[in-house]
Design a protein that fits this description.
disordered N terminus, 13 strands, alpha+beta, disordered C terminus, 6-stranded antiparallel sheet, Serine Threonine Protein Phosphatase 5, Tetratricopeptide repeat, Potassium Channel Kv1.1, Chain A, single chain, about 35% helix, about 400 residues, Apoptosis, Tumor Necrosis Factor Receptor Associated Protein 2, Chain A, 14 helices
């Protein structure tokens, strides 16, 4: 991975929309794609002042051993280790690759995306360039994003139809069965101050959030009761059904009636269910750091992707040598792909130490395929070989 120097500058209003910014980045990376032209949210609204903006160029080469053994079904995908600019280790990116298309419309193609895993800035504006490196070391099938993309944590952008799958299978593209994907990212973000417009949005929406929280606490006009253990939580079908497709299907199955419905929810503690329901009303979650594992499980169960992202971020911040193995098992079991990618990267970087933990024994004994995935090896081979990245 190669990260180029950062340009931290204050852009005056008339410079933001001028070609001069393109010239600035061109001096950093002659062959890089154009820098995003949209920086309005970095300016302090109405003051005429300017905000500090950081410009990063990140180049990363990802070698995938045994590419032909990667998933062949549409929707299957693999995720690279995380990478970041040397100047900002908190900005984490990864590459997401579907060997046979991520959606039905892209079946037969290799789909390729960049995903923002984490960042200090709430928004990152970026342009992408992808290519493949053939067995002669040449960069081929170079494709640039034509538009500036706005990334938030967990969002991925790229190419649904990057290259025909059959072309990738050619011996010229695979060196000893290995496929090398190269990614270049020009990213621009405000690393010191969040966009002021977000503060205005939160202020405007706060009245709605407060009113919905009062509705949840008072139970006014509630029409269904969720029962977990000995605890009954009265809620409103319209709100939970609108927020979660699982609850929507559950309420539809129960049908309509004059009396209040009582629906038993098994396999979840009452306090966790109460927190999940409050989140569906308000978007707020209390004591996330204390209950992030249980809430991650609940978010997967009820299809609450934004809650899952919050849980993943909380768990990423707590990954250690002692808990890494158990964390990657948790992430795999509950579809937490960002957490999984980060933890696999962490294990690869600390493999000697992690192998001494009790969690590693559990991983080896009961999750053989996951061990093979960590080391990028097929299940039929030993998992002692170091990964190639």
């Amino acid at each position: 991975m190669r990260a180029h120097p950062t340009a931290s500058v204050a852009f005056p209003d008339q410079f933001i929309h001028s070609p001069a910014l393109q010239l600035l980045v061109a001096t950093m990376a002659v062959s890089a794609p154009p820098v995003p032209p949209r920086y309005d949210s970095f300016l302090c609204a109405g003051s005429g002042a300017s905000a500090p903006v950081s410009v990063y160029r990140v180049c990363y080469a990802w070698t995938i051993p045994n590419f032909r053994l990667c998933g062949t079904s549409t929707g299957d995908y693999v995720i690279s280790p995380c990478f970041s600019p040397e100047e900002d280790r908190q900005m984490l990116w990864c590459i997401k690759l579907s060997p046979n298309g991520f959606t039905e419309s892209s079946e037969g193609y290799l789909s390729l995306y960049a995903m923002l895993v984490d960042s200090k800035s709430p928004e990152v504006f970026a342009r992408l360039r992808f290519c493949l490196r053939n067995n002669r070391g040449e960069d081929v099938n170079v494709m640039d994003e034509k538009e500036t993309r706005t990334f938030i944590q967990g969002k991925s952008c790229g190419f649904d139809k990057f290259i025909l799958r059959d072309l990738v299978q050619d011996e010229e593209m695979l060196r000893g069965g290995k496929l090398t994907v190269c990614c270049e990212i020009i990213a621009v973000c405000d690393t010191e101050n969040p966009p002021r417009r977000e503060i205005r949005e939160i202020t405007t929406d706060q009245h709605l959030v407060d009113d919905l929280e009062v509705l949840f606490d008072t139970k006014t006009f509630s029409d269904v009761a969720l029962v977990a253990g000995d605890t009954e939580i009265k809620v409103h079908q319209a709100i939970l059904g609108g927020r979660s497709p699982v609850f929507s299907a559950l309420f539809e199955k129960e049908g309509k009636g004059e009396d209040m419905k009582r629906i038993k929810i098994h396999g979840i503690r009452p306090d966790i269910l109460e927190r999940v329901c409050r989140y569906m009303y308000t978007g707020k979650i209390h004591d996330l750091e204390l209950h992030d594992k249980e809430l991650l499980v609940a978010s997967e169960r009820f299809f609450l992707e934004t809650l899952k992202a919050k849980c993943e971020r909380s768990l990423i911040a707590k990954v250690t040598i002692q808990n890494a193995a158990n964390t990657v098992i948790l992430a795999t079991n509950y579809g937490a792909n960002i957490l999984k990618a980060y933890t696999i990267d962490f294990i690869r970087a600390h493999v000697v130490e992690v192998r001494q933990t009790a969690g590693w024994l559990t991983l080896v004994d009961f999750h053989t395929l996951l061990v093979c995935e960590i080391f990028n090896e097929p299940a039929s081979k030993s998992s002692s070989k170091e990964t190639v990245v």
